[in-house]
Amino acid sequence: MLSDVVDIIKKASSPGGLILVLDEAQHLAKLEGRGDNEQRAMATLDMIHNGEIGAPVILLAGGLGTTELAFESLGISRIEESCRVRLGSLDRESTCAVIRDHLVHRCGLDSPPQGWIESLADHSHGWPHHIMCYVESAKECLAASGHQSTPASLQHTLEVGRDRQIAYYNVRAHGITENQRHIIARLFAKLPLGATVGKEQILCDLEKEYSEKEAGEVFRRSLRRGVLDERANGAYAIPIPSMQKWLVDLLD
Length: 252
Hints:
Helix content is 54%, strand content 6%.
């Protein structure tokens, strides 16, 4: 089976090389302990990593904060710093430019009001998924209003977009109970957006209400779901500032 996988990669390669794209790469961790499947994945990744395919191969892997740990579980731990790209939010200028293009080409506004662009940028915080929450809402609300970019249709857009944001956060936090979310939220309640908390403190607070085993599983699930993300200093943050605000607001 390994030779089949490698043969496919070799046949797909050209003298100029091959680019392989792997999204949601954090799920590679599920192969750990899976016998032959794990061994085949390890061997294939190792050949790509060490340039043994016989042609230049670049693997572009994207995923949540546990992606590197997933690769480590399959024997790939030597990743150069220059090969790591930590994606964050867009800057203000780029956010506004993306929103304007969508309002024109997706939503049918020939000349989007600057107030619309600024408002959607304020609420999306520059995060691509959030931008699309508000763009899709704008498309629906403008269609319903006959493409009249009025204050009322803007307010409706913001309300529907916020509902989409909250739905996204609930998906990210799936499997983490309300009480567990509250415990995590209290750790960040008085901290500025983007602040970090040590793993020991997170586990300590969880263990006040759960067993050590259960607390560890909640912590790992929070990482897998992208509710928590490890930073370069070894501490943990809620990766999206507006998601941190959402979690803290759950305490009210």
